[in-house]
Amino acid sequence: MLLPLRNTFAAKNSIMNKSNTRLQRCETQLQDFLAETLRDISIDTLSVAKTPGKWSAHENLAHLARYHQIFLQRIDRMLSETRPEFPRYRAEDDPDWASWAGLPTQQVLVRLSSMRAKLMARLLALNEEDFQRTGVHPKFGEMSLSLWLEFFLVHEAHHLYLVLQQVRGA
């Protein structure tokens, strides 16, 4: 999309505002959701899968914690390489998945919080040029770091919805 020169400053401010909004959403989405969803829920019930063959709330949270690590590695590669290609992440194919899923739920929640803090620190240290760096997804193709972050947040929201179904669903 071509912008007239007189709107270049406004466009740059708009990009910066979008990044700030995205970062605010990243900072609060997980914490706000878990605070509301897990209120008055026994932590012991998080390991019980209500639907046979589906992950429990605990497993979904462990997946999110582990995926934070994966995403941080991907950010580092996007910043240090040109158009790195990433395979689709599947927990079932991850040799570290079993150790994450096997952690006590309280430890998963602590690690998830710690990983989110690391992610936020990493993202807040980036500039707009960094957010334009790209990586290649096997299904969605080349995506900027900004789009990867949106993808990360949508992926996270999907798993948070599954947690909600497990702990609050009938």
Structural description of this entry:
With 170 residues, the protein is mainly alpha-helical. It has a domain at 51-168: Up-down Bundle (Four Helix Bundle (Hemerythrin (Met), subunit A)). The chain is 63% helix and 5% strand. Helix 1 (8-37) packs antiparallel against helix 4 (105-124), helix 1 runs parallel beside helix 6 and helix 2 packs parallel to helix 4 (105-124). The protein starts with 7 loop residues before the first helix and ends with a helix. Mean pLDDT is 89; it is low at 1-16.
In a few lines, what is going on in this structure?
This protein is mainly alpha-helical and 170 residues long. Helix content is 63%, strand content 5%. The chain has a domain at 51-168: dinb family like domain (Four Helix Bundle (Hemerythrin (Met), subunit A)), CATH 1.20.120.
CATH architecture of one domain: Up-down Bundle
Query: Whole-number radius of gyration?
Result: 18 Å
Shape: globular
How much of the sequence lies in strands comes to: under 5%
Low-confidence stretches: 1-16
Largest sheet: 2 strands, antiparallel
Give the total of beta strands. Answer: 2
Predict the CATH topology of one domain. Four Helix Bundle (Hemerythrin (Met), subunit A)
Number of helices: 6
Decide which structural class fits the backbone. Answer: mainly alpha
Mean of the pLDDT scores? 89
CATH class of one domain: Mainly Alpha
The CATH H-level homologous superfamily of one domain? dinb family like domain
| First-last Cα distance | 47 Å
